[in-house]
Amino acid sequence: MTTPMPQAPMPPAQQQVLDQRLALRSDHWQRYLRDMVTCVSQARPLHSEGRLLRVTGLVLEAAGVRAPVGAVCEVHADSSEHRGDDAAGGRNNPPVMAEVVGFNGDRAYLMPSGDVHGLSSGAAVHPRAMPDQPPRFGQSRPVWRRNEDRGLHLPMGNGLLGRVIDPLGRPLDRQGPLHDVADEPMVRRPINAMDRDPVRTPLDTGVRAINALLTVGRGQRLGLFAGTGVGKSVLLGMMARYTQADVIVVGLVGERGREVKEFIEDILGDAGRARSVVVAAPADAPPLVRMQGASYATAVAEHFRDQGQHVLLLMDSLTRYAMAQREIALAIGEPPATKGYPPSCFAKLTQLVERSGNGRAGQGSITAFYTVLSEGDDPQDPIADAARGILDGHVVLSRDLAESGHFPAIDTERSISRVMTAVADKEHLLAARRMRHLLAKLSKARDLLQLGAYQAGNDADLDTAVALQPQMMALLQQDMNDAATLAQSRAQLTLLASR
């Protein structure tokens, strides 16, 4: 085996020249890499640009828009505004925000969230830029952005308490800008049904009839079924003021603009407003904004629940939310199914309601009350019928009771709380069952009592019901300015049922 011949050492002058060349080359490559890092860090992703082709009713049709369903786009009435030119009129026409609600081939259907006045054919349509920065050069694990990040990011945080905002997170109460808030995405991952805490803790609503006969559990979802003008807003205000909850979120969806201020000032009051967040989307708002108001109110409730707080969500009303979805679905060509409601309306109802409830173990809860308007006091209204199937109980307000001066006008015979057996003890359940039985006896014998044909002694339960009728009516009635705790309601019910 031969050994390599040792090389002669390089002369010092030649070695010095070689070292200088290597140093220059290394410095050159270092400068080049620094320039590349600077270019990559300042790069911005390219965004597609489409053109507005048609405006039909509520729907904008655009071509060239590559964005997923749910993404937010900006429609510019003048393309010079987007370029930043000083063209006449360019700065006076702010872009119209619109959401992608469907597509057909290369045509995207957008639903605007504002007035489309001033838009013309050929207007530029730009998908809204993603809120997070692109991955920078040198990151070991770049975080890839998901498609739903193109959706709306709205303010969340403790700065919303005591404020009245619109579905876009803008203040409506003229108390200045929002503070102590941060923009968060509206789309959240649903909680696994097996990870949720069961409903086991009773909740004091401050309403005697509900506490006694329809006991509510923390994390339950109930519906307030009523026609127009029977006192559902007053009942919501009572629960907002008296319910034992850390945060109250009120979603006023599709209601009259006059009722928004009256509910906040007269019904909610200063005590209820201090711990409340009110999201208002009046009836004159576009259907997309009305739907977004319900989603935003639910997202705010989810934010506080994830912080370990117990939230009371009051939504007025679930029917207006379904009507807004019906307008959007029919506008983009979805066929109607049940009394003019497309199938997507019922799917949207379930998706909205399932977001409330108890969180994971150790987290907070969302106890939700959704008002459901029965058109023409019809209990078989499709939205009312669907809501009864997806909610954990329903409270029916009777027009006959309201017209007779019985407030709150809760029809206890037609109302039910499906979790009462899990949150009330045996004595309470027996007393409530006895009370319901006596009320049913009175209801069936109402005609006999009014005609004077009732004869005592034939039915012992009916005799007891007639004797206790004033006390039972006093138990079920309550002034809106008076609170009745759960313990007081239970004690009064037990005493009455024991007679």
Give the percentage of residues in beta strands. Answer: 15-25%
Report low-confidence residues grouped into runs of 5 or more.
Answer: 80-90, 131-148
Oligomer: single chain
The backbone outline, from C-alpha atoms, is: elongated
Fraction of residues in helices?
Answer: 25-40%
Secondary structural class: alpha/beta
Number of strands: 19
Q: How far apart lie the N and C ends?
A: 116 Å
Mean pLDDT: 85
**Sheet with the most strands?**
9 strands, mixed
Helix tally equals 16
Instruction: Using the CA coordinates, give the radius of gyration.
Output: 31 Å
Describe this structure in words.
Helix content is 37%, strand content 19%. The relative contact order is 0.11. The model is unreliable at 80-90 and 131-148 (pLDDT under 50). The chain has helices spanning 12-41, 79-83, 208-213, 232-242, 257-274, 287-306, 318-331, 343-353, 382-390, 399-403, 420-423, 426-444, 446-451, 460-467, 469-476, 486-497, and strands at 50-56, 59-63, 72-76, 96-104, 107-112, 124-127, 153-156, 163-165, 182-185, 202-203, 216-217, 221-226, 247-253, 276-281, 310-316, 357-358, 365-373, 393-396, 416-417. It has 499 residues and is α/β, with parallel strands linked by helices. It contains 16 helices and 19 strands. The radius of gyration is 31 Å and the shape is elongated. β4 and β5 form a beta hairpin.
Question: What keyword list fits this structure?
Answer:
19 strands, alpha/beta, 16 helices, 19% strand, single chain, 6-stranded antiparallel beta barrel, 499 residues, elongated, 9-stranded mixed β-sheet
